[in-house]
């Protein structure tokens, strides 16, 4: 394993050659947002250690583990594992796992950014663009593996709603209040691209739902089968659109997203760990995220029953808020600094990635696993998603912002949260298991 310190000159040389023509490594808004949760380390603390390998190992531990303001939440990880091992209350396992996922999500963003310095701007940008919502995707895949389709759909839709209403709304509200005497403007081109993709994703989500209500089944014909086939075809279309979006963002129209790449502090542009070190840390943290995600998925019903809160509220509201806390805080800070292009990049970029990549990917993976995952998110959920995208599209149409726009978006999120808080309808777990040919007891 290769370890390197931030002061190493060879590391700086490698970093310089991996920059684009403007001297800036391509970074997404999500990574820049998470950078506000980081804190600089003091190399003097480990420079006095005699053994080089031990010194470099401790330097990496200092950068990766202690290099975030969320480091105080890392003890939740061993506590969650101990709670599961010693058979503590399952709601405790759920709560501790959620807390442990918060710093891990920020650290994955940090590690992908570090690796991007050595892979070149295109590959690095692709890494950042596809790993921005790694935590939500891993949770969704574990829910798919356990055949908890309702948890999967709720959590993914909750991430979209959280980004579009809570993150964007809070950013516009705080930014507007902090800049009352200055006009806040942003580039509409970026917002238009993301809005178009979100509307395409909404169309693909609505088609199975409309098909289910519009088509009357003939004798011996199951509408569910046709809905499933339509969902799989639509998912392929969505994945193709997302690939086009990546090419558009990183290659053909990169200048539209250049405003996201401006960083005031030059220290943020320097890699602090080596490539193989960052890769090893990334693999290790991904495995820990997978373990905690399995705990979250496996204990969500117990937490819902104990706390008296519906599964839909936990999945749609609580999990997305905790999973993206660092990224969301950074977006708000950028809005305070009147850099709305970055705040919009965080909110719209994350929502687009979930809608056009994570959701169809789960459908395709379920197709491979012979699990009947479709795009039918039911009437209530799809209606909330449709109205959210329309409200956001109208809010961003003029290229200017003020705090009242943030108030409207935040209140929309509050209304939707209240809706799912009182949504006590049991999740269709048994029906899902029967459709997939599984024993209900195996997915509990």
TrEMBL record:
Spans traversing the lipid bilayer: 64-86, 92-111, 123-145, 157-180, 192-211, 231-250, 271-293, 313-336, 348-369, 375-396, 403-423
InterPro entries referenced in this protein's UniProt entry, alphabetically: CaH_exchang, CAX-like, NaCa_Exmemb, NCX_ion-bd_dom_sf
Cellular component aspect of the GO annotation: calcium:proton antiporter complex; plant-type vacuole membrane
Localization per Swiss-Prot or TrEMBL: Vacuole membrane
Annotated keywords: Antiport, Calcium, Calcium transport, Ion transport, Membrane, Transmembrane, Transmembrane helix, Transport, Vacuole
Pfam families noted in UniProt: Na_Ca_ex
PANTHER family reported in the protein's UniProt record: VACUOLAR CALCIUM ION TRANSPORTER, VACUOLAR CATION_PROTON EXCHANGER
UniProt similarity note: Belongs to the Ca(2+):cation antiporter (CaCA) (TC 2.A.19) family. Cation/proton exchanger (CAX) subfamily.
Function (record text): Vacuolar cation/proton exchanger (CAX). Translocates Ca(2+) and other metal ions into vacuoles using the proton gradient formed by H(+)-ATPase and H(+)-pyrophosphatase.
Protein's name according to its UniProt entry: Vacuolar cation/proton exchanger
Organism: Gossypium raimondii
Higher taxonomy: Eukaryota, Viridiplantae, Streptophyta, Embryophyta, Tracheophyta
